[in-house]
Design a protein that fits this description.
8-stranded parallel barrel, globular, alpha/beta, two-stranded antiparallel ribbon
């Protein structure tokens, strides 16, 4: 099981977002201490009634900069909103970024869910799953076969090719975020990896994994060929203030290195192949302490860190 770190791109409750210098430093630290991957999420803003607007750095720009600032860790999106970008151009962007980072990219994709950001930036919110399915029918063959000829109701890529080729003959792996039955089927049909968003309690993880495995079987696919990923929130309250939504003690994992490592390893026993960690506070000290837990977890799993 791999363990990675999510880099926060959003403004916090004080209206401040981590600077590029901070994000780069934490990514480089994560790589140095043996984590397997770094991830960014993809939003342009959040607007909820009764709350101020929350802004985000743009994900692909940050990921591109991270590709040049790291050398070993995998780089992933958790997840890129397919509705924000032309699918054929997105496949071209992914293949090019995979060249820049020497084959370390994981292209996480989703249909999006927050209507206010679609409205604010002038992007259609209707028929999101249908649009997403057409996007996958363009992106996957472009990344696998470097060519596609597709004309759908929402997207077109007629006689389209990706040239030159990126570094991997098999193309960039695709991760799909899916929750409902229709999205689960799309993940089973098109994805190399699937994310259950936040892992949560053992019972929930077991149920989610069973659902996506059933979707694979319904598509005639071996469920073991789909990598299961998901997020885990880890916090160290003694190292700094936590967001107000984390007031409940069961909203995050914590503990000393051995105790936290046992909690992480428990997910592997449920079939999880990659953990994406949301870490609080997002500081050098917290990343260092988490690295100790990850090292113990890897030792428990018989994996050499880094």
């Amino acid at each position: 099981m791999k363990i990675g770190l999510i880099l926060p791109l959003a403004e916090d409750e004080r209206g401040a977002a981590p600077s590029w210098a901070e994000l780069r430093a934490r990514a480089e630290q994560a790589e140095a201490i043996g984590l397997d991957s770094v991830w960014v999420y993809d939003h342009v803003l959040h607007r909820f009634e009764g709350h101020p607007t929350v802004g985000f750095w743009e994900a692909w720009t940050m990921l591109t900069a991270l590709a040049a600032s790291t050398s070993r860790v995998e780089l992933g999106t958790t997840v890129l909103c397919a509705g924000f970008r032309n699918p054929a151009l997105l496949a071209k962007m992914a293949d090019t970024l995979d060249e820049v980072c020497a084959g370390r990219l994981i292209l996480g994709l989703g249909a999006g869910w927050h209507e206010p950001e679609f409205d604010a930036f002038g992007m259609p919110f209707d028929h999101r799953v249908a649009r997403f399915e057409e996007a996958l029918r363009i992106i996957r063959p472009l990344l696998r076969d470097r060519a596609v000829d597709f004309a759908g109701e929402y997207h077109r890529a007629v006689d389209c090719e990706i040239r030159p080729r990126g570094p991997r003959d098999c193309g960039v792996p695709i991760l799909v975020a899916a929750f409902g039955p229709r999205m689960m089927r799309l993940a089973a049909r098109h994805a190399d990896q699937w994310t259950t968003d936040w892992l949560g309690p053992v019972a929930k993880v077991r149920e989610d994994v069973a659902r996506v495995r059933a979707a694979c079987e319904a598509e005639g696919r071996d469920p073991d060929t789909l990598v299961i990923t998901g997020g885990a929130t880890v916090a160290y309250p003694d190292l700094g203030d936590l967001p107000s939504w984390m007031s409940a003690p069961d909203s995050f994992l914590t503990g000393d290195a051995e105790g936290l490592a046992k909690q992480l390893v428990a997910y592997r026993e449920l079939g999880v192949g990659h953990i994406l960690t949301n870490l609080y506070p997002f500081t050098e000290a917290a990343v260092a302490r988490y690295g100790e837990a990850v090292a113990v977890a890897k030792e428990m799993m018989g994996v050499r860190a880094g």
